[in-house]
Amino acid sequence: MEILHISAECYPVAKVGGLADVVGALPKYQNKIGHIAKVVVPAYETKFVRENEFDVAYDAWANYGNNHFQFRVLKEKTNKLGFDLYIIHIQGLTDRPNVYGYQDDTERFVAFQIAVLDWIVQWEHRPDVIHCHDHHTGLIPFMVSNSIKYTPIRTVPTVLTIHNAQYQGQFGWEKLYYIPAFDLWKGGLLGWDDAINPLASAIKCAWKVTTVSPSYLGEMMGNARGLESLLRQESWKSVGILNGIDTEVWDPETDPMLVKSYNLKTIEAGKLANKKALCDVFQLDSSKPLFTFIGRLVDEKGADLLPDIFNTALQQHGDNINVLVLGSGDNWVEGRLNQLKDIFRGKYNAYIGYNEQVSHEMYAAADFLLMPSRVEPCGLNQLYALRYGTVPIVRRVGGLKDTVIDIGDGGFGICHDQTSIWDVTQAINRAVELHKNKKAFKAVRKTMMKIDHSWDKAALNYIELYQILK
Ligand code: ADP
Ligand code: GLC
What we know:
With 470 residues, this protein is an alpha/beta fold. It is built from 16 helices and 17 strands.
């Protein structure tokens, strides 16, 4: 089958979070099992876009409301990512360093979606499936089914994967004229709660809807930022498919970002070498258990509680633990996490910002990784932690619930029920006890490293899903 993935992020072209990791890996694995999967993302001004060579695949003008824009579809020359990568350059809209966060994000992503469809509608490679990821590509299912100029591709099935329903991309009806002409009585398919809602529209119009873990699908029926009833209504075409990880990028045996590589046999020495190196950089003591957090500092991750959690845990455990944080997001949380550096010098440190290299070093060096998420559609951090022999401490929610089994239940992680200071500090207490029992701790590490979360299975699950649509 020929599959076209359309997304705002794709690792290593442009990454903000796990969406990029999924779109950078799933197509590669679909190609490995004999299909043709391609990826389209906006041409941001990122390092990857600057440093790689592209051919012009298409160059045109598109109508945009009362205006128009010129765009170029560029194809990466070498296929180095394991799939054909197309980036769409729209002068003045995509050519910026960041993926999100601009005042005109609506205009940027609506224009991107129109450019993609203007290109596909005249393309000789008609895909068998158009696979959209999150709200930034959520208007595509509507436009494919309803916009008059896209009639030639109306029979191409569209699939929506919801990576995160916290963000829906709503904008006012006054911008309806951006959407290429359609029979106006179908306009209701674009809206939800008095606004145009790209995520809601995609849930209504896509032929199939998937979520990135089975538990998240169930949870969304009760809590999805206002979309609960819609998800219940469309549950007949929805399915949860658990994400995998790219085991070529995330492999402690070959990871070039580590000071020492390791495998199941050399795990103890390997992790210790990485821990020593990282602790030196961050002025921590490598003889103590190292607790870490990596991620976006936003409410859904429980980041607002982290300063109090670390304050409590570090007071309680005195000189027996170390903490290292890597993340960026909410200014207030960033500030409070920075303040703790002075209070707990030598026991606590934080890197406020985004750094792929440091994240790999941390998965390898850490003993424990905290994920006290309020909402976690899948979560990839815990999967990377498992592969690097780091014990995940997670709240039982979404994909965390589907991938981490508590050691008390014969598993390998530490689970808690609530995103609360009490629950997380209790979990840290359990972790400290586990760490003292060297034999049990080593055994848990080995168990985790043996777990297979590669994309092989999920890539096939998606293919089976597309095949139903043919
Ligand atoms: P989400 O997509 O909700 O942010 P995931 O767990 O699915 O959460 O994926 C997060 C991804 O982003 C992982 O690859 C993680 O290592 C990475 N990441 C998050 N924050 C940072 C950061 N500050 N620096 C480097 N990598 C980060
Ligand atoms: C989202 C979710 C995260 C998931 C990722 C990849 O950003 O927040 O839980 O792992 O997408 O699907």
